[in-house]
């Protein structure tokens, strides 16, 4: 395929993605030619069946190398690829407008649109290996952390990879500005982050739980959880920035049933019980979002007094909100317990998480189960 055809196809794909109109074709082509250092160009007839975005960008990067516009180094190729993918991606305002329009018809179609776009522009990669968390070295870094809003469209630096094509969907959660985007290296299907605009740690108070439940009200086909909560977060890590993680429904934990039920005197309408699960886990269900958040605060406060960690995972089942709370021992090095030993052990099948039982707040012995039941019944 000639470079003329590649550039023409690239412009066609950019227009199809709704970021540009046919009137913008010359502008797109000239932007691409400048990025790859090609001085001569003969337009081709636009065609319907197009190569993938990745295939087109690879060809354009090869052309830039041949033209000696960039060095054959991973960073140079990464930055150029990101700049090209940015041209294939509509601006944030356009994406949010399209997302909102689709959402009015179907929330699932809206997330499908955004997810497909993020996969196409390489914001989401089909990579599942463990990726080391990024930590900033500068005290006054920009962006302040890896999940800040200011990463949107950022060219990158020596610590942060280029993410010029990075986009976020804006949300309002309990009166606060939030956004969501899909993780570059997903650990499960449609793995996404819900991020507060304000750079501050996640404070597990009732408003936080209200926000968590509101997410699954907005996206009932997703689950959402607070998996990165830390009492004393490193100010240079993503734990210093309030965020939840989420993804497509269908986790093994969803099929788990109650081992025993217990009542909440203050909240008689809330269904609560201990789950049949290898680590200490409680499920609470209720129709009223605010009431359920208040009931969950009882559990969090009691666990906090006993220096236990609670990781809530929320979802919506028809008219009911449902939250599974994993109760764990406090560990100094337990920043992301959902990924303990590179496995999503909290969300995997029970037979696959035996090695993580030692950080469960209560063990699975007869005595441990009696203690856990007494703990829950005292709420």
TrEMBL record:
Q: Which residue ranges does the record assign to the Galactose-1-phosphate uridyl transferase N-terminal domain?
A: 20-140
Domain of life, per UniProt, equals Bacteria
Q: InterPro entries from the xrefs?
A: GalP_uridyl_Trfase_II (IPR000766), GalP_Utransf_N (IPR005849)
Q: Which GO terms describe its molecular function?
A: UDP-glucose:hexose-1-phosphate uridylyltransferase activity
Q: Which reaction does it catalyse?
A: alpha-D-galactose 1-phosphate + UDP-alpha-D-glucose = alpha-D-glucose 1-phosphate + UDP-alpha-D-galactose
According to its UniProt entry, one GO biological process term is:
galactose metabolic process
Any one Gene Ontology cellular component term annotated for this protein: cytoplasm
Q: Which UniProt keywords apply?
A: Carbohydrate metabolism, Cytoplasm, Galactose metabolism, Nucleotidyltransferase, Transferase
The pathway it acts in is:
Carbohydrate metabolism; galactose metabolism
- List the PANTHER family: DUF4922 DOMAIN-CONTAINING PROTEIN, GALACTOSE-1-PHOSPHATE URIDYLYLTRANSFERASE
Query: This protein is called what?
Result: Galactose-1-phosphate uridyl transferase N-terminal domain-containing protein
Q: Which organism is it from?
A: Vagococcus entomophilus
